[in-house]
């Protein structure tokens, strides 16, 4: 296997960890994703991961149910930490060194994220799994993924999710939606395509960080997507 990328930032959707359920972590899905990550790491690509938390708690829905937004977002960020611990452990069980970091200080749980320490861990051959999002309310793990990719000088963000790319409309809602093979940052923002939030796309644009959106259950797997096989959409400046 050969990949054009030396260091990648993989965003793993929290919802994908729940598999066919709407909540929690399903071990076969967790271990399937960990095995794809281990394959890529074994082949020499440095991998940093940001995990979402949609399978545990989303701040917006908590706030809609009456919890104040800041508290609800803190709960959401803690949810991503649960996923980060689970994924880091699953990667270690594949025989690949992995270290979780937390955006919030919780020393008995994980090292606190600093770009310096996370970069050092990557250079030492660890897959780093970054929980707690950006550490700030009113953000998402998509923005955290883009931010960390820039801080860690990654070559690309891979957004692994339930759909196989960016569509003209939400493909879960509109069966006539069509997939883009490639789309520019400004167009994805102008068309308000919701596969990632606008803040994440704007940060990526301003720092020329390319994003590849693909389905975590793509047959080609993460390794194949990195080699340009499988279905995906590249968001970025025209090649
Ligand atoms: N134009 C679009 N193209 C593709 N997907 C879209 C589009 N608009 C909305 N979506 C939806 O965006 C979803 C992916 O984003 P979402 O933020 O919900 O998930 P995630 O960030 O991967 O999950 P989590 O919050 O659990 O980590 C897809 O499942 C899809 O239904
Ligand atoms: O930087 C961040 C990242 C996340 N949150 C909260 O966590 C949940 C889960 O994250 P998803 O990106 O939706 O998977 C999110 O709904 C926010 O409530 C945050 O506050 N700040």
From TrEMBL:
Primary subcellular site in the record, as a coarse category: cytoplasm
Keyword Signal: no
SUPFAM superfamilies assigned to the protein according to its UniProt record, in alphabetical order: Carbamate kinase-like
EC number: 2.7.4.22
Pfam families tied to this protein: AA_kinase (PF00696)
Catalysed conversion reaction: UMP + ATP = UDP + ADP
Keyword ATP-binding set for record: yes
Lineage top rank: taxon: Bacteria
GO molecular function, one term: UMP kinase activity
Activity regulation details: Inhibited by UTP.
Enzyme category, top tier: transferase
Location in the cell: Cytoplasm
Domain spans labelled Aspartate/glutamate/uridylate kinase: 6-213
Protein function: Catalyzes the reversible phosphorylation of UMP to UDP.
Protein family (similarity comment): Belongs to the UMP kinase family.
Subunit structure: Homohexamer.
Protein name: Uridylate kinase
Organism: Devosia honganensis
Lineage: Bacteria, Pseudomonadati, Pseudomonadota, Alphaproteobacteria, Hyphomicrobiales
